[in-house]
Amino acid sequence: MRKNEIRIIGSTLRSRRPEVKAHIPSDLIKYVWPKVEQGLIRPTIYSVLPIQECEEAQDILYRRENIGKVVLQVR
User: Could you name the domain of life of the organism this protein comes from (predicted)?
Assistant: First the structure.
C-alpha cells in the first residue's frame, strides 16, 4: 500500500457489552484528554480555508492531496 492510502477510521462498538462501552468515556477523560490539553496529542491539519472556499476544500479531499484535516474557518 502507498502511504497516503492508509487511514485510521475507528471501530464499531456494537458488539461490545454495555459495561465495556461505559468505561470508554472515563478512560478517554483520564488518559487521553490530559495529553490533548498538554499538546502531546494534536490533530494533523493540512490546511485552513475560509468557508467561502468550501468547494476548493472539497476538491482537495477528492484529489486526496491532503495528509490531515482540511478545516473550514467560519469566522
Answer: Bacteria
Cell of 15: 458488539
pLDDT digits (tens, 9 = 90+) for 8-54: 666 677 788 888 888 888 888 999 999 999 999 888 999 999 999 99
User: What span, in angstroms and rounded, lies between the C-alpha atoms of 52 and 26?
Assistant: 38
C-alpha cell at 73: 474557518
The candidate with the shortest Cα–Cα distance to 74, out of 46, 52, 44, is 52
At which residue does the C-alpha cell 484535516 appear?
A: 69
The contacts of residue 32 (CB under 8 Å, 6+ apart) are 41
